[in-house]
Amino acid sequence: MPKISVVIPLYNGKKFIVETIDSVLAQTRKDYEIIVVDDGSTDGAYEEIWKLYGEKIRLFRQENQGIAAARNKAILEARGEFIAFLDHDDIWLPTKLEKQMRMFEANPGVGLVYSNSVILDEGGIRNRTIFDIEPPKRGHAFYDLLKADFIPVMTAITRKDILLDAGLFDKKFIVAEDWDLFLKIARKHEIDYIDEVLVKYRVHAASHSRKRTLMLRELNAIMDSYLADVEIKKDKSALSKIAHMSASYKCTMVLAYLNEGDKRSAFDALKECAALRKNIFRLCLVSFIAILPLRASRWIIGKHTSVAGMHLEDGQCVSSAKRLKILYVIDSSEIGGSETELARLMKYIDPDKYEPYLVCPAGGKMVGIYRRYAKQVYELRVKTFFSISAIRAVASIIEKEDIDIVHSKLFTSDFCAAIAAIIKNRIYIATVVGYNFFNDGKNIIKRVRKSILSLIYRAVYISARHVIAVSSAVKNDLHERPGINVNPKKIKVIYCGLPEIEVSGTEDARRRYLINPEERLVSCIANLYSIKGLIYLIRSIPFVLEQFPRTRFFFIGDGPERKSLESEVNRLGVDKNTLFTGHLGEEEKNALLYLSDMTVLPSLSEGLGQVIIEAMILKKPVIATNVGGIPELITDKENGLLVEPRDPRAMADAIIVLLKDALFAKRLGENGRLVYEKKFFVKQMVDAASSIYESAVKKPRVFN
Predict the structure, then answer these.
(1) Given its phi and psi angles, is residue 677 left (phi above 0), alpha (psi -120 to 50 degrees) or beta?
(2) I need a surface site. Which of 73, 235, 336, 618 has the fewest CB within 10 A?
(3) Which residue ranges in the chain fall short of pLDDT 70?
(4) Are 412 and 396 in contact (CB under 8 A)?
């Protein structure tokens, strides 16, 4: 068994990964294993290192989830007592493991050992070492570490049991996940340091460490968690010390927001800082800068980059003249089909041609994912994008970033983006994902309101250069529904495109959800809204259980209807066969989909149905309602079953058919896979969107 597990997360690091792995293989101490977790690379890095190293390393692959998830995966797979961290673009010197392990052997009580590191630029030229200015810390260094993250992650070695006790890396952090984890370790354990350069640390444009504003935002979140810590609150001296440091970070955050031109966020941070009643001089200085006109405050910050004691880097790079700047506007940062599809478009679109920016509501679960693929994400703190304040904010961003094309999703986003694009005279494109103002409610006032808006809402698309519909059904609705119509010449149908799904964690899912091999599983993946028709699927469950009592129904997703749906489950007495999982990560969701005998989508209205394509990829049979764009995915009895909406008995009969006839279910799933391969690859979606962008900048605008 190896003593040390070397953990290397990999994402599009083909240019550097070979040199990185070779630096580990050159170590003078040999009792180690190398674990590389490829986090959804698209540059061929995975294939390259497998070809070069084969069994010399342990290589894992997962869908892109971020560096924290990749490191966690490697730690859980590790067989060594010690974990040594290394990023895919950094280089170890040959004696690193040997010298650091001597310190653990000399002092078994130490929890973490780190070292100095030389900083290289993109060309591999040495700039300086990390500790040229700041001396390193040893011993009980928790409060020192709160002041500044001084532990370079690629130099750190710690014990696996300590990492497990600390809870591993927190996946909600994008760039400060290592600082957060090392704080948890330093709070309980001593740390030690080797005053010697043992690592070459490469800094380049893609490095997370360059994302200053995001880093500051996450540091403030970590500080707030310690201010709320019960044990720290008991110690007035500790609480005062942390509050003082937190005030310093919040002051710096104010300046960072001002430097981006975001006065609203700057004043929010300023209020938080004032509430702490610490660092009064710095607070007054920052307040003075904040109340100046934006141009003046940004000039001061630009001229005096060490204001408030922290250097502010300008994270904006000058774009190539050849690249089109696309501002995506979406009035949702929670998990959903439209949100994940937009993230996927930004992930796969050609970075040599396009530079994506994004505007979304603040604080949702999708924000971290958006940040992986957008050059800059602007979080708006407004109640709705259907507002003057949102329009002004988007217009300001368009001007600041010199945006070429504004592209929106979801109707409130469409309204905001269209008006802002008109104000700034930019090209506007909208993607329509469903039937806006679909009348499914019983409240007479809401029905009348929706009926009126249904007649006029499409006026927002008059200024659009192109309107993208996610299905032919949506296209037809846009230009055939009574009221203001959209010119069919400007509507282009682009189907949702998905990459291959790599399934892992199925055994973990079996254990977590107590799934027995004899049980039959029916999954339903949807946000819990009334429009999804989930109540009718629930009402079909008793009919199914009469013939197949060992069937379980998994509702994967969350939303405002959850309590009422759970009440209906209890009323029908099917709670032992029904589980609401809430929102799940991609790996866990895909594992449950893979384990399912079938998936059901009982929507009352649906633009297309992304989950149907996900099921097709995994050769799972699908039962769905015959509404909207779903028949463009499913041909009844060929690659799925179609039932009428709001009909629990028909839905139950379809489920029973597939439970009875495994060969028929298998044929439907296999035919579904063929449909996916023909029409729904992610490349087809990205190429079609790129074609729209190129057309938009060349062709004159079509009004109406």
Answers:
(1) alpha
(2) 235
(3) 121-128, 130-135, 204-213, 244, 248-249, 251-263, 266-267, 269-322, 436-456, 699-704
(4) no
The two structure tokens encoding residue 480: 């055939």
Helix (H) and strand (E) counts in the chain: 27, 22
Q: How confident is the model at residue 442, as a pLDDT?
A: 53
**pLDDT in the model for residue 150:** 85
CB atoms within 10 A of CB 514: 9
H/E element holding 212?
helix 212-227
The enclosing H or E element of 468 equals strand 466-469
Q: Which residues 6+ apart lie within 8 Å of 192 measured at CB?
A: 103, 107, 110, 112, 113, 114, 138, 139
Q: Centre a 10 Å sphere on the Cβ of residue 469 and count the other Cβ atoms it contains.
A: 27
- CB-based contact 405:324 (threshold 8 Å): yes
pLDDT of the residue at 437: 58
Q: Would you give the end-to-end CA distance of the chain in angstroms?
A: 70
Tens-digit pLDDT profile for residues 459-475? 888 889 999 999 999 99
Q: What tokens appear for 258 in the block?
A: 């001002």
pLDDT at site 118: 85
Model pTM?
0.55
Predicted local distance difference test score (pLDDT) of residue 456: 67
User: Residue 146 — φ and ψ, nearest 5°?
Assistant: -65, -35
Which residue type is seen at 451? S
Q: What is the Cα–Cα distance from 366 to 334, expressed in whole angstroms?
A: 5
Residue 418, classed as helix, strand or coil, is helix
Q: Token pair 């039962």 is at which residue?
A: 623
pLDDT at 228: 77
Q: Helix (H, G, I), strand (E, B), or coil: what is residue 595?
A: helix
Tokens linked to 459:
């006026």
Q: Which pair of tokens denotes residue 485?
A: 């119509």
**Residue 378 structure tokens:** 């602007």
Question: In this structure, what are the phi and psi dihedrals at residue 97, rounded to the nearest 5 degrees?
Answer: -60, -40
Tokens of 437: 């103002």
The CA-atom distances, in angstroms, between 161 and each of 84, 105, 164, 172, 177 are 13, 16, 5, 22, 18
Q: Give whole-number Cα distances, 214 to 183, 203, 293, 346, 502, in Å.
A: 19, 17, 24, 19, 30
Q: Would you state the torsion angle of the CA atoms of residues 680, 683, 685, 686, taken in this order, to the nearest 10 degrees? A: 170
CA distances from 278 to 131, 222, 257, 265, 605 (A): 29, 18, 20, 20, 54
Going across the sheet that includes 491-493, the strands are: 376-380, 354-361, 324-330, 405-409, 427-432, 466-469, 491-493
Cα separation, 487 vs 316, in Å, equals 38
The closest alpha carbon to 372, from 69, 587, 45, 169, belongs to 69
What pLDDT does 295 receive?
46
Residue 149 has what pLDDT?
78
Per-residue pLDDT tens digits for 82-119: 999 999 989 999 999 999 999 999 998 899 999 988 87
Beta carbons within 8 Å of 466's beta carbon, 6+ residues apart: 429, 430, 490, 491, 492, 692, 695, 696
Q: What is the pLDDT of residue 406?
A: 96
**Ramachandran region of residue 244, left (φ > 0), alpha (ψ -120 to 50) or beta?**
alpha
Helix H or strand E segment including 432: strand 427-432
Token pair belonging to 326: 């696309």
Instruction: Order the strands of the 551-556 sheet from edge to edge.
Output: 578-582, 551-556, 520-525, 598-601, 622-625, 641-643
* In the chain, % of residues over pLDDT 90: 56
Q: Indicate the residue type of 668.
A: L
> pLDDT at position 695, please?
86
Which residues are 551's β-sheet partners?
520
Place of tokens 């869908």: 63
- Nearest-angstrom CA–CA distance, 506 and 464: 45
| C-alpha to C-alpha distances, 315 to 138, 153, 214, 396, nearest whole angstrom | 32, 22, 10, 18
